[in-house]
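In the present case, backbone shapes were mapped to integers, as reproduced here:
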Amino acid sequence: MRNLKNKLFFIILPFLLMACQSTPVFDIKTFPAPPKTKLDDHHLIRIKSNRIKQECLFLNAEAENKWRHQYFIYLLTDKNEVLPIMHAINQEGSVCKEQLKKIQKILNQESEVKICAQSELTKEIKEDERFDRPIEFGPLGSHQVVYDALFLDSICNSKNCFIYDEASACLSNIRKSD
């Protein structure tokens, strides 16, 4: 009887271990652009909300009445590397801050979000796009940006989305995965 209990334990153990595994803190799936097109790759990123930092960067454009701001979102990967994602269009400061608030509500609602972004995912940062400072992630520490920036299409939790590009192929993949 004891031998049977031991065998049963070792049969059940793998299932218990799989059930106890937590969801990953960062996962990225890339959908390559069709060959010989000028389209960008699309990326579907699942990430824990506490691994995201946002900011509106002021671009010193004195000749343009100092209106230009650039929205950035920084993702802390499972390897503690920072992947920046930006909105492709410069904005008024008030518009950028309003966007930041809307996305923060999505981040605060749930512990995990899905992000659609586009462009080529590269680790070689162009000289003129380097970040001079590490990005602060609170209790997770400060970490350096090591990727070129992607362009934001959408960010969603299970209830709400902030969307730039309704026609994004990535967004349809989010909807399929829910």
Summary: The first strand starts at residue 26 and ends at 31.
